[in-house]
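Take a sample.
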Amino acid sequence: MNANGCADRIVRMPESGIREVFDKAAQYDDIADLSIGEPDFTTPEPIIDAVDERVRAGATHYTPTAGRSDLRESLSRKLARENDISVDPESEVLVTPGAMGALFESIHSLVDPGDEVVIPEPFWPNYHGHVASAGGTIVPVETDRKDGFVPSPDRIADAITADTKLLVLNTPSNPTGAVIPQATLERIASVVDEADIWCLVDETYESLVYDDREHYSIASDPALFDRTVTVHSFSKAYAMTGWRVGYVSGPSHIIDSIRVLQEHTVSSVAEPAQVAAMAALESPELLEEIRETFDRRRTLMVDRLGSVPGLSPVDPAGAFYVFAELTGTELDSRSVVMRLLEDEQVAVVPGSVFGESAESFLRLSYATNEATIEDGTDRMRRVFESFSA
């Protein structure tokens, strides 16, 4: 037991460095926020209208822990249609409180104390807390800018040991925007199969892919389905962050384990949120409208960051983040972030929170409006010009 009485599994969970930026930014009134990974627009009207109608008709109750049966049936059709993943809606898909809940529950259903979890770096920092609280150890696998931060199958294979239980993939990636091509995923699938380990794939940003690239789900390979858990979310694609609804699919015995864990934690996802998810699936045209909006903002942000001295942006293939390399200062990424906040009240995220190999980068979100992107990058330019003055 820890000296302060808190359980060791909680003490092992690091606080997110992203939260530090949010808290610091909240101290300023005139903030240009390029840090938060949340769409700036509200949930589309067709979804809100459908929820209003169905809630008034009585959709305000407990549901099965796995989620409403009609929603799970809709999810199974979506997975077959868009991801080429065939699942039994009764036993191989489960509705969760966002992708965060799905990831936490999946990792705790797969990882025992002492297990190693291989994750390509840079990676979303919350994976740290999920793995640490389960008693596992993360083994980072560095990716390179010259490869678009796409993970190397050979490096993944080299990182696997007798203690490896799980490989975590995130495509499209937060923070880099990397989209893992099908050919690379097929090579990774061979590595996973040969090593006899599990694969957890975070596909939260699956609909936000640009420049004629395509998202590919590794679980669509029948040979990999029985050792793969796939996580999806409504938050980013449909601007539904506050509804807290996602879903997870995989082999029935793992989904049942996740169901048991969820039964003892959140019981089930709120029924109005499940109704919202149903309405989103009934409005697929919204996905392209939202994707096109983010694509325009992506182009705007990359173009403007390209004129900031001492900063070299990576053109993202997916998601809604730009990973930009620090090339004109010897300050570490956190110090640069603090200077941006203190000097010009612009909020971005230091690369260091995404792993040691990302120390020389910043993450910027273009989930905000064009005016904020323009204002924020103007403020950044003034700070970076001061570095060389």
About this structure: The mean pLDDT is 96. The chain has 14 helices and 13 strands.
